[in-house]
Every structure is written in C-alpha cells, then in structure tokens.
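Why should sequence recovery work at all? Because a backbone constrains its sequence more than one might expect. Tight turns favour small or flexible residues, buried strands favour hydrophobic ones, and helices have their own preferences. The token representation captures these environments compactly. In the example below, the structure is given first.
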C-alpha cells in the first residue's frame, strides 16, 4: 500500500459525548465514571434494532475526536477529512448550526485538517434559508448538507428519517432548491430500495451535485440482516435491485458516489461478530465485486473512497480498509488513483479552496 499523494477522507464522524448534545450525553454524564456499568447500561437501554445496526455499542458509546481518528489513520497519508453530520441532538431553531460551529475549532491543533463540513438542515422547515446562512457564517468550510432519508418499513432496522418518501414533500423540495444558489452539495443517504427517489431528485435538480453515501447501502446483500438476505435467492434479488438503481443513477452526471459504508453491519457480512477481522482476500472476494460494479459504471471521475469511521470500525481497522481500497485500485494509473483518493473529494467539497 504505497501512496505518492495525500489522502482526503471525505466521510468521518466526530463526537464529544460529555460536552455536546448527543443521544448518549446523559448516560455518559451519569455513568461514564465506570466504563463497565456504563457499557452495560447502554446494552440494556438500546433497542434490539439499534444494537443490531451498530454491531457493538461500545463503538459509539465513547468519544471519537481528532486524536482518535489520527491514531486510527497512523501510517496513512491522510491530510484532510470531511465531517458529515453526526446526529447533533439540538435541532430546534438554529441548534444544528452548533455542530458546524463546534467543528470549526475542533481541528485547530490537529495534524489532519478539516477540509469540509457537511451539516444538517431540516430542509422542509420554513426557515431553511436562514439555517443555511447560519451554517455558512459558522464555518468557511461548510460545503454541503445532509438530511438522512434512509427509511425501511422493517422495525428491526434503524430508521434515520421520520417517514418514507420525505424527498417527495413539496416543502422539503423547496428547501433542497436552496442548495444550488448557495453552491452546496447534497449528501444523499438512502437504502438500496429507495434509490429511485435519488434518481428523481437528480433529474429534477440538475444544478445540484448529489453525493450518494455508502453506495446506496444494499441491506442484507452479504447475509441475513433482520428480514433481509435470509436466503441466497433473497440476496440475489437485493443485488439485482441495487444494480438496477445504480445503473439508472450512473446515467445522471450530477451524481457522484462515496465508495464507503460497505462494512456496516446492515450490509450483512457479519464481520462485526468476529474476534479476528476479515482477511484482505475475503474482503476482495465478498465486497470487491460491489465496488468494481460502481467503479465500472460511474467511472473514476465520479467516485471517491471514504472511511465512514468510526461506524465501519466495528468490522475492520482503518488501515485494513485502506489496504482493501488500495488493492481495488492497484491496476489503475496513478492519475486515476489520485482522483479516487484525493482529487474528486477536493473538487466536490472544495477542500483547500479559499471561500
């Protein structure tokens, strides 16, 4: 794994449970003095759907800050990261802007720099324009918006959107239209069976760059997850449904894809249950074809490798992940590899551009 250029990791999350508003802030404040009791309480208090989705709660039950990411990235030439909103709990009024303001100073003394901020905006709100303006004022690195659309009717799967088909809501679309005039991208996270929503959005708003997070998350394509992927036939249907939608998205030039998130438990590999991480060979055999499919049809100009750490950390280390990425791209010319690991993220998120 040799890199002759710096890496931009365009999808990580950071949180400080004691000092910022998170879902685990109060449990951490009450019980964090005793790690064993605290983690036991998290296990008892979390729903089965939440525990299944996360894999092992301890991976989100503790702070994840620049120093933690730097340790994970040791030996990798990561120069910049892009932070994607991480469910900051204060979403009343201008509350979500607090995350952007917090991030603006978080990397001040870090070797790895903050290249961009993709913040949360509830686009259906009547004051969405004011919230966007406040984000931009809070940080010059604010470059995009994410409001998660991932929703499944299966109650055994975590829901990240309050209802299905939010993207069809007229008020929500009015908010989305604000992004073009503000030169902001939209990070779209949906499950595989929802990707027709993104096809419709990208066609309706050709002036907005849509970044598909985590390759459209094909639930259960690697093995059973809740009601998905119980049989080989079911997994084949999932794969073909995902491929169909991805081919439709590949026809739309304003859609780019983050090659990421494929080692979250929801994909169904089961790596989170192992004491020993999967080998490079196993990663290439199982997940490799999904990445190769996306690279083939979207091309190297519309894809970017990203970590989704610490969420994928439950399955493998950051170094193992980037070794896998490096293996996928080893046959590509240097110029193409640089696009996948650096240039495309820099272009989409304006990393290093004075604003």
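From this structural description, the recovered sequence reads:
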């Amino acid at each position: 794994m040799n890199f002759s250029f710096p890496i931009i990791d365009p999808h990580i999350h950071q949180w400080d449970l004691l000092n910022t508003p998170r879902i685990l802030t109060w449990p951490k404040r009450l019980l964090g003095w005793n790690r064993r009791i605290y983690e036991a309480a998290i296990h008892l208090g979390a729903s089965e759907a939440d525990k299944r989705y996360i894999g092992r709660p301890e991976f989100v039950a503790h702070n994840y800050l620049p120093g933690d990411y730097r340790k994970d990235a040791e030996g990798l030439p990561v120069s910049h990261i892009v932070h994607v909103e991480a469910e900051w709990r204060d979403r009343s009024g201008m509350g979500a802007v607090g995350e952007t303001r917090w991030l603006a100073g978080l990397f001040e003394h870090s070797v790895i720099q903050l290249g961009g901020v993709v913040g949360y905006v509830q686009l259906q709100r009547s004051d969405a324009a004011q919230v966007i303006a406040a984000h931009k004022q809070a940080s010059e690195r604010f470059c995009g918006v994410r409001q998660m659309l991932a929703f499944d009717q299966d109650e055994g799967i975590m829901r990240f959107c309050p209802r299905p088909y939010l993207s069809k809501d007229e008020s929500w679309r009015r908010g989305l239209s604000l992004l073009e005039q503000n030169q902001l991208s939209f990070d779209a996270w949906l499950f595989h069976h929802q990707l027709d929503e993104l096809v419709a959005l990208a066609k309706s708003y050709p002036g907005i760059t849509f970044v598909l997070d985590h390759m459209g998350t094909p639930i259960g394509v690697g093995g059973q997850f809740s009601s998905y992927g119980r049989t080989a036939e079911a997994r084949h249907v999932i794969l073909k449904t995902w491929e169909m939608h991805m081919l439709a998205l590949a026809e739309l030039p304003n859609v780019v894809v983050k090659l990421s998130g494929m080692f979250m438990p929801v994909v169904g590999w089961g790596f989170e249950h192992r004491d020993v991480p999967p080998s490079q060979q196993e990663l290439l055999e199982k997940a490799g074809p999904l990445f190769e499919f996306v690279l083939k049809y979207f091309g190297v100009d519309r894809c970017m490798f990203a970590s989704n750490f610490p969420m994928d950390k439950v399955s493998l280390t950051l170094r193992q992940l980037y070794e896998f990425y490096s293996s996928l791209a080893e046959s590509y010319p240097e110029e193409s590899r640089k696009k996948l690991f650096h240039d495309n993220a820099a272009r989409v998120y304006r990393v290093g551009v004075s604003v």
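A few observations help interpret the result. The mean pLDDT is 95.
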